[in-house]
Amino acid sequence: MQNEPTDFQLLSAINTGDYNAFRVLFERYYSPLCNFAFRFLKDDYIAEDIVQEVFTKIWEDRRVIKVTESVRSYLYMAVKNKSLNKIKSESVRQEHTNRFSEIENIQVDAFVLEQEEFRNYLFQCIEKLPPRCKEVFTKSRFEEMKQEKIATSLNISLKTVKAQVGKALRLIRSCLQISYPEYL
Amino acid sequence: MKHKVEIFYAILSETASPEENFQFQELMKQKDDLFLFNQIKKIWDEAREVKNFRSYDAKRAFYALSRKVEHKNQMKRRYLLVAASGIAAGIILMIGLFGLMGLPQMNQQQASVVFETETGNRSVIVLPDSSKVWLNAKTQIRYDADFGNTNRNVYLSGEGFFEVTHSSKPFIVNINDFKIQVYGTKFNVSAYPDDQLISTCLEEGKISIKRQGTKELFVEPGQLIDYNKQSLVFSLNTVNPEDYSGWRANKMYMNNEPLQNLAKKLERKYNISITFSPEKLGDEIHYSGIFSNESAEEVLDAIAIASGLEYTKNGNAYTVRSR
Asked: How far is B139 from chain A (nearest CA, A)?
């Protein structure tokens, strides 16, 4: 079995100008970081912009960049800081002012990183649910609909709603056990 | 007996019957089931936090980023001839032989600012919000004096390539009863009044197109949307967006280069010969600008006037000298 290169290995390769390593690191973290940035920015386009800026900077500084801690926390930290700067500088500021201090207080520590990682795996597992099961589950969790309302809106019985959500939870759990064993 | 997870779900959603409550209490006495419950609870609680998650397309983004990285490298090597006019409404960047082939005409009526290009002329303008618009020939763009303050509305006739900055104020390109709403992006619009089609091609980002009375149509990068003004039909094609904005850099592009280089390009393009007298003239005089479909003589005329030169012609051979 071929092992994926570690973040650290990738960064070392990037240091030497390996563009392919850069691509692998980018693809590994792009979507999770965009989702992280979205939490602050509430705009997926700006979120993508920020993440791309972070990576562009890494490439530009590839010769000198040194990461002492984990690459992952470096990336999340950079995305958080850039997001804050964006909010500060943009005209969107007024909308965001209230959230600004709230975000500033989010520490990019081991706990937050682990939580973020868990959420990414969780999201992927939800995405993989069978369509009907996913529909019932997301109505229940994302839209916070009551069981009765889900039943009426999908024209199914209350019993089916319960069974589908139960099934979703079981499937997500098994999916997490495989894709993210640390969850255990 | 119900599956344990369904009982957990009843507890978590606070819909448990007394019987389910009892079963739950019993289960919690088992270490394994308590553990299982905690796992399910974590999924349940965290699921709400991923509500806004989506899969971002890393491959596409990396392609876009690669182009930016490349572009930056190129920008270091060349920069554009920039003429800044101190116009309150914004800075205008003009590329080309302004004054010779025609400045983009700017009229400041009471409430709006208008830029126009004439046949054979292109230019770039920078709007007050720093968005850039490349105007192809015979194009007019107009925006209200309060652009950037209350709105970001522009009115287009002709063809433009837009590079729109991000802002909370929507950027809207109006073409008669057409609106293209922009969410920070690069795209090309061709909407000449005498053309049958209005063509919109998205290079990067997000836009939507809406004709009055129809639904908003979202466009993905690489898509070309043609609207037929006669049949009122939209059609969609996937294309290489650069093919649709290539006119911007068409094609002879000079950045502070010696005339000698331009002469070579002209020689190749028009099958003529150009000599300088004295020869060093070709290296001494530098030139910036864009030429497109002008004839060789038009180009030489333009340079002659701009640089204080003159030329004589003998068949296909041109000689350029100081005046």
From this structure: 30
